[in-house]
Structure formats: C-alpha cells, structure tokens
C-alpha cells in the first residue's frame, strides 16, 4: 500500500498523511531541479550526416546529371534528422521516468507528462508518476510534486473559458486560484506491455475527477505557479 508523500522533503512517508480539515488555500509547490536542456543531435553526428548527403549529391550529379530535386530532398531530410527532439513532446517513458515508480506492477499509478501554464505563460514542465487517492490527484515528478483536492479544480460543468481544450493530445485541469488563470496539461506516457492498463485506468479516473470530485480533507499542495 502506498504511503503519503511528504511535499516538504519531496520524499515518501509510509505513515498516513495528516488531515487538514477544511483548509481552502494550499501552499504553492516549488521546483526542485532546473529546466532540462533539450538534447540535440551531437556535432559529430551532424558532420557525418552532412558528409553522407554531400557524397550522395555528388554521386547523383555525376551519374544522372541533375541536382536540384536531390538538393531539395536532401535539405528536407536533413532538417528532419537534425531537428531537436527536446523541443517536441515525448510520450514514451524513459529509464529515468520508470525510476519514479515504487512498483512497476502497480497499475493504479501512471507515468505522465505535465505542462503548467499561468496567466497565458508557460511556468514549466515535468514528467512523473500520478495517481488518485482520498479524493486527490497526486503527482511525484523529477522536478516537483503536488496533491490537488476536488476543491482545487474546476469541474467539467463550470470549466472556465480561458482553459484550452487540447483534444486527444493533452487533458486539461483548471485550478481554482483566486485572481490567476492556472491550468495543467497532462497526458499519459505510452508504455508497451504490462503498464498499458495503467494509462487507461488513469484517464478514466482523471475524467471522473474532473467531472465531479468532492472536496478532500487530506494533505493538499498546488504545483509551482512561477518559473
């Protein structure tokens, strides 16, 4: 059985979480690590690719005598290969992501990707383990952790107009923050094999939590609201 997560020390505490009664304003979380640097194609790989396409262009020109279509095609392929994967969403769990799971066989916990936006600006992103317990949506990631109760989010019925609808890519939770427009965009990381049912179970529970989540009396904490 999973214990409570200590949001002060960012560690698991297998004792039960304290009840905070009718607390209405959770404290704001903090980032515990800097933004990761996007991984780009190493310079050596770029030089190898450039040499390969250069040789291909020369061979094509010498054998067929035409160059423009090959140059155009090579340029397009080069742009695709040399684009930074760190600038694009990656929905496949990495080995570092899997380390955040206490038990890979626990299908009540799902690995997700997370984006936080405040007042129209991105605050930050993270990846980590998410689950539902005692009327709360909990997250423990590489950079931060939080626990949202039903009283912290807008339901589907009273969804604010400023919260976007991202369709099938990312699901949105809008926070009931006084005076600010805060929303979270989340999506499961797509694993292969044993953990696939965890993704389906997580989405079902997320939809139910967003549709109707009663207030929770357990420990709550908002995610970071500043970069």
Which key terms come to mind for this protein?
227 residues, alpha+beta, PH-domain like, 2 domains, six-stranded antiparallel sheet, two-stranded antiparallel ribbon, 4 helices, 8 strands, elongated
Spatial strand sequence of the major β-sheet: 6-5-4-3-8-7
* Oligomeric state of the chains present here: single chain
Computed structural class = alpha+beta
Anisotropy-based shape: elongated
CATH class of the largest domain: Mainly Beta
CATH architecture of the largest domain: Roll
Report low-confidence residues grouped into runs of 5 or more.
14-22
Summed over residues and divided by their number, the pLDDT gives a mean of 77
Number of strands: 8
Q: How many domains comprise the coordinates?
A: 2
Radius of gyration: 22 Å
Q: What series of H and E elements makes up the topology?
A: EEHHHEEEEEEH
Assign a percent range to the helix content.
Answer: 25-40%
CATH topology descriptor of the largest domain: PH-domain like
What is the CA-CA span between the terminal residues?
34 Å
The major pleated sheet works out as:
6 strands, antiparallel
Strand residue percentage: 15-25%
Number of helices: 4
Description:
The chain has helices at residues 43-64, 68-82, 95-98, 196-211, and strands at 4-6, 11-13, 110-118, 121-133, 136-141, 145-149, 171-175, 182-188. A hairpin with a 2-residue loop joins β4 and β5 (136-141). The chain has 227 residues and is of the alpha+beta class. It folds into 2 domains: 43-87, no CATH class; 90-211, PH-domain like (Roll). The relative contact order is 0.19. The longest helix is centred in the first third of the chain and has 22 residues, at 43-64. The protein is elongated and about 75 Å long. α1 packs antiparallel against α2 (68-82). Strands 6-5-4-3-8-7 form a 6-stranded antiparallel sheet, covered by helices on one side. A two-stranded antiparallel sheet has the order 1-2.
């Amino acid at each position: 059985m999973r214990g409570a997560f200590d949001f002060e020390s960012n560690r698991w505490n297998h004792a039960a979480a304290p009840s905070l009664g009718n607390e209405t304003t959770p404290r704001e979380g903090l980032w515990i690590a800097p933004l990761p640097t996007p991984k780009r194609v190493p310079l050596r790989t770029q030089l190898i690719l450039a040499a390969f396409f250069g040789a291909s262009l020369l061979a094509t020109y010498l054998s067929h005598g035409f160059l423009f279509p090959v140059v155009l095609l090579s340029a397009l392929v080069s742009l695709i290969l040399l684009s930074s994967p760190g600038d694009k969403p990656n929905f496949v769990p990495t080995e570092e992501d899997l380390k955040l799971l206490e038990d890979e066989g626990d299908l009540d916990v799902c690995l997700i990707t997370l984006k936080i936006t405040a007042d129209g600006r991105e605050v930050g992103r993270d990846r980590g383990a998410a689950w539902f317990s005692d009327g709360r949506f909990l997250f423990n990631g590489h950079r931060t952790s939080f626990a949202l109760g039903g009283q912290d989010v807008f339901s589907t019925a009273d969804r604010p107009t400023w919260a976007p609808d991202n369709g099938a890519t990312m699901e949105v939770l809008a926070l009931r923050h006084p005076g600010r427009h805060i929303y979270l965009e989340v999506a499961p990381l797509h694993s292969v094999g044993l953990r696939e049912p965890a993704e389906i179970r997580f989405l079902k529970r997320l939809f139910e939590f967003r549709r109707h989540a009663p207030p929770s009396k357990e420990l709550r904490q908002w995610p970071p609201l500043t970069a």
